[in-house]
């Protein structure tokens, strides 16, 4: 669907993708919904890349944090990760790549507040990775 590139469109796509991320962590999603979420997160990045205002880096961190949560099936609204939810090698790899991208390219612009939310999803990633590597 054609639309104007920019932060407002990115935010709308972000909220839609966030819905799928939360649903994935809590009750699971279909393959179709997972593909839609992937496309929405990519759309968010494309729209934010088209934006040139300084706030964009913070928005990118926020979107990538949620995307990491989507990949590792974690939620801000659930106290503990559900280890019964399956996370693929591909999803763990994508989450790891996003973590590196945030640390190397984005946190230099906003090192304080986004770091707090980033640390939460990064911790979820490493918890999941530790259990994943032990075969749980």
Secondary structure topology:
Layout: H1 7-26, H2 31-50, H3 56-72, H4 89-106, H5 113-133
Describe the protein's architecture and organization.
The chain has 136 residues and is mainly alpha-helical. 71% of the residues lie in helices and 0% in strands. Helix 2 (31-50) packs antiparallel against helix 3 (56-72). It is globular.
Structural key phrases:
136 residues, mainly alpha, 5 helices
What is this structure, in a nutshell?
The chain is mainly alpha-helical and 136 residues long.
Cα shape: globular
Helix content: over 70%
Radius of gyration from the alpha-carbon trace, in angstroms: 15 Å
H/E element sequence: HHHHH
For the largest beta-sheet, the strand count, sense and barrel status come to: none
- Count of helical stretches: 5
Question: How far is it from the N-terminal to the C-terminal residue, by CA?
Answer: 41 Å
Hey, roughly how much beta strand do the residues contain? under 5%
**By helix and strand content, what is the structural category?**
mainly alpha
The tally of beta strands, per DSSP, is 0
The mean pLDDT is 81
Q: Which spans of ≥5 residues are poorly predicted at pLDDT below 50?
A: none
